[in-house]
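## tool: complex_structure
## caller: assistant
## args:
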Amino acid sequence: MIVALVLLLAAIIAAVALPRPLTSLTRTVSPTLALTAWIGSIAGVLFLVGSAVTVLLWPGHAPAEGMVELAVRCLGSLQHAAQPWIGEAVAGASVVLAASASARVLRSTRRQLRARSKVRDYHRDVIAVVARTDPGPEPIMWLDHPLPLAYSIDGRPGYVVATEGLLAHLDPDQQRAVIAHERAHLRGRHHRIVNICEILAAAFPRVPLFAAAPAAVRVLVEVAADRSAAAVTSADTVRSALSTVSQAHSARPLWALGLIGESTTERLRHLDTSAQMPTRTVPGAYAAAAVLPLVVPAAMAILTLSAISAAACAAVLT
Amino acid sequence: MKRLGDLEAEVMNVLWECDRPQSVHDLRELMADRNPAYTTILTVVTHLHEKGWVERTKQSRAYLYSPVQSRAEATSQALREILDTSTDSAAVLMHFAKTVTDDELDALRGNLPDVNR
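## result:
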């Protein structure tokens, strides 16, 4: 039970405290590194909670229990003094909570998948018919429309949808940049990353980490795709393509409202900085970004519980 | 609307490129590189007709098929439908469409001038 407590505490610390450092990370390090940190944190929290439930349900003492109990010996002795029904009640409650959490995730996954397949079906049935398709590993569907527009649809195969309006507004280099940007989304599996974050955010809107993830991750995948586009063309080209399409006028299609506007400035800023400094990442930075969000909260949880344990002992002894 | 196979998209492509209505026989000749069977094309255009993509007129013993809308009109309508769907359409990430001019917005709203007819 102590181990489960440590794990749960670590999960809570991670879920509440991580969004802030992650957000500042988003502004400083390379987008892929920041993405890794976000994904690592989310996976970490899920792992911690999952482990806590496993430990609670483990018959007898879970394998790692001895070690942690050493650290929090006093609470451990309290636990042994406690009535066995307390342990059972806690285990029962954790089963109920885990089941309802799974149900929430399942429900929001279903909703997300339904929306996704609706969009895909529509593209397969209607857009594919009206478009002129450029075949390739990621086919491009060209639409005969004046609105400058490009987006990507994931799946197998994923493809890019773009309009003639885009060709009219951008020069060939800028067009290449836009297509490279969309392809980067497909190759980087960005849709999937965003989807998972949105599923978790919809299932647990009150968990700060999950609630903050979709917006941050959306900006990050854009910045990452901009970088790939800049690698194929140049940062200047991507920047000019972005400004050209975002400056034309003030009216916007319904679903491009909100975040997109802010993210454009954010993206332009990133392109500015990436043009100035070479992007070299310290080896091991990715591993650190993935693992630290798990290790640091766990250590903090053990320390906290040890302190509580010491305080409890002191209180009992005096 | 049910699934439109590759062949259905291809037939629409051919019909949009032509300026006159085509019979199944004509379509077969225009798509000679794929060498489709007569009955295949007949099935495809019948489906397209049922789904409202093409209209047909009878000439002597054969039907002549032509698109109900121009490609531009059909595209505009399809795109409008996409833009009207909710903001968090899961599979779509949209980026480079930030803004529209008023004329383009009008076009999006369906007031596309009939330039192609």
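## assistant note: Residues 71-84 of chain B form the longest helix (14 residues). The two ends of chain B are 25 Å apart (CA to CA). Handing back to user.
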